[in-house]
């Protein structure tokens, strides 16, 4: 039984004063209306209506239930109307900043759905790993990974970026497969240095309460995500990349996960935007859309790699 539909029928029967008139106004058979009310009564365990050959009347329980149904259905209609007005008024330019790999692998493939929902929005999508001043550059929102340090921004946490250690099959064929993070001292590691600070990032691992955080030597350090991925796929060394990126490279046979029992700390994934008293409808619908996208995206949630992920571990072997 569709309980919401049954409640609508119940309210209409009460207001019409008869099953026949209520069924006709709803364009359903009278027998259907009768069955729905009977199912409601059976489910509630109370009698809602007293029926005679001439009229129907509410029981005390029916009167109370009628009032609650009217309030609930009214609130539902108002909520739907508000959403329709919001979507209809979501118009104009929205400037968004996102990392190049996140844009290419996650956001851009889903944008057809966004534009179908919000045809009045024109999206400007900045795709890079460079530091961006949202206020100075007029950016409406950005998708960032890591902790938020700028107190002038508002953040909405939308998930976690799990980081995987991996290498190209060609590299593993030449150098073997590391079994422990300490083995990386004997391997070539592809390092990443921050485009903002210039600092080379340490590698980190944890397993069963043991934590290792250390720099590792390598022939190359890169400050661009696409370049970093290209170096890993070219077999230049062991790398640590987001698991949603690894998924695509694994599908193409370019990379393989290593050190599967050791996990890097997951990094918060956030949508950030400048502090404003009111967030415009056009930005709000984009933030809501991308939040839902990440929540359902197979590669972000790691379902294609490991089934249902735990909050703090990435199980790839």
What's a concise summary of this model?
The chain is of the alpha/beta class and 317 residues long. It has twelve helices and 14 strands. The protein is elongated and about 90 Å long.
Keywords:
three-stranded antiparallel beta sheet; Arc Repressor Mutant, subunit A; 12 helices; D-Maltodextrin-Binding Protein, domain 2; single chain; 317 residues; 41% helix; 3 domains; alpha/beta; five-stranded mixed beta sheet
Task: Indicate the topology.
Elements: H1 3-16, H2 19-26, H3 30-44, E1 49-51, E2 56-58, H4 60-89, E3 92-98, H5 100-107, H6 111-117, E4 121-127, E5 141-145, E6 153-161, E7 163-167, H7 169-175, E8 190-192, E9 203-207, E10 210-214, E11 220-222, H8 225-233, E12 239-242, H9 243-251, E13 256-257, E14 267-274, H10 281-296, H11 298-301, H12 303-306
Parallel strand pairs: 3-4, 3-5, 8-11
Antiparallel strand pairs: 1-2, 5-14, 6-14, 7-12, 7-13, 9-10
Helix pairs in contact: 1-2, 1-3, 1-4, 2-3
């Amino acid at each position: 039984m569709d309980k919401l539909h049954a409640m609508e029928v119940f309210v209409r029967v009460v207001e019409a004063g008869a099953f026949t008139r209520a069924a006709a106004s709803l364009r359903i058979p009278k027998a259907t209306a009768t069955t729905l009310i009977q199912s409601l009564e059976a489910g509630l365990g109370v009698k809602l209506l007293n029926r005679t050959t001439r009229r129907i009347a509410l029981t005390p329980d029916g009167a109370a239930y009628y009032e609650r149904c009217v309030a609930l259905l009214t609130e539902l209609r108002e909520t739907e109307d508000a959403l329709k007005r919001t979507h209809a008024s979501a118009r104009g330019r929205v400037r968004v900043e996102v990392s190049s790999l996140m844009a290419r692998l996650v956001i851009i493939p889903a944008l057809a759905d966004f534009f179908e929902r919000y045809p009045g929005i024109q999206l400007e999508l900045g795709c890079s790993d460079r530091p961006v001043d949202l206020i100075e550059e007029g950016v409406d929102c950005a998708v960032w990974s890591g902790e938020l340090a700028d107190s002038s921004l508002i953040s909405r946490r939308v998930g976690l970026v799990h980081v995987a250690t991996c290498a190209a099959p060609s590299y593993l064929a030449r150098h073997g497969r590391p079994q422990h993070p300490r083995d990386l001292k004997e391997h070539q590691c592809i390092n990443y240095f921050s485009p903002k600070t210039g600092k080379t990032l340490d590698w980190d691992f944890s397993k069963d309460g043991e934590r290792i955080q250390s720099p590792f030597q390598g022939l190359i350090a890169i400050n661009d995500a696409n370049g970093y991925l290209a170096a890993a796929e070219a077999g230049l060394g062991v790398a640590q990349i987001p698991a949603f990126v690894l998924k695509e490279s694994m599908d193409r046979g370019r990379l393989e996960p290593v050190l599967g029992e050791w996990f890097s700390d997951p990094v918060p994934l956030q949508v950030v935007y400048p502090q404003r008293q009111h967030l415009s409808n056009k930005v709000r619908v984009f933030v809501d859309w991308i939040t839902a996208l990440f929540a359902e995206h197979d590669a972000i949630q790691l379902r294609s790699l490991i089934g249902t992920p735990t909050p703090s571990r990435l199980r790839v072997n």
